[in-house]
Design a protein that fits this description.
Number of helices: 7
Number of domains: 1
Structural class: mainly alpha
Order of helices and strands: HHHHHHH
Largest sheet: none
Number of strands: 0
Mean pLDDT: 93
Strand content: under 5%
Distance between the termini: 37 Å
Radius of gyration: 18 Å
Shape: globular
């Protein structure tokens, strides 16, 4: 899996790319929560649930189905002022769904573990993508990141996730600036 740092960064960059900076703190917190929430399944190890189990690490909680349910629940709990199933509600639902689902997708690009149960709850088969360039992070928290292996993982994530997201954000900002300067005031 990519590190919690990179999953969090993905949430923050997602919000910046899709909505911009003028969003309430609650939005940014939910963005980070959605991007890291699937990894709460590591608790399964401590209560005796095996890795390959339906509720094991990288199982159900890494699936798009979970992302869809999670997005719905988070919107109902924390963005109650938005009318249910309105256009604005769907916009946020899609956004939080993509952020939550991005966790399993990024994990499927890593080069270790048992794979991701992308089709859960319909199948517990674990998958990787054909190309797995991201170094898998060891489970063990922040101290693991300060080892030589941890630095390799962070470098891999920086090159393959952080830089592309920063490029996308830069292109968005440049396009908005160009649009405002040469075409419309409100871009």
């Amino acid at each position: 899996m990519p590190t919690i740092i990179t999953h969090s960064f993905t949430g923050l960059m997602g919000g910046s790319i899709v909505f911009g900076r003028k969003m309430p703190v609650r939005f940014w917190l939910l963005s980070v929560v959605c991007s890291v929430l699937p990894d709460l399944d590591v608790i399964a190890f401590s209560i005796g649930i095996p890795y390959g189990h339906f509720f094991g690490h990288r199982g159900f909680f890494h699936s798009p189905f979970f992302a869809a349910c999670c997005s719905f629940i988070l919107l109902c709990l924390f963005m109650w002022e938005i009318k249910l199933f309105s256009k604005q509600w769907w916009k946020y639902w899609i956004y939080f769904f993509i952020l939550t689902a991005s966790h399993g997708i990024l994990d499927a690009f890593t080069n270790g573990g048992l794979g991701i149960a992308l089709l859960s709850p319909f199948s517990n088969t674990r998958y990787f993508f054909p190309w797995t360039p991201i170094e898998v992070s060891a489970i063990g928290g922040l101290p693991v990141l300060f080892t030589q292996r941890g630095m390799m993982v962070l470098w891999s994530e920086f090159c393959l996730i952080w830089i592309p997201l920063l490029i996308i954000l830069s292109l968005k900002v440049a396009a908005r600036h160009f649009c405002k300067k040469y075409f419309f005031r409100k871009c």
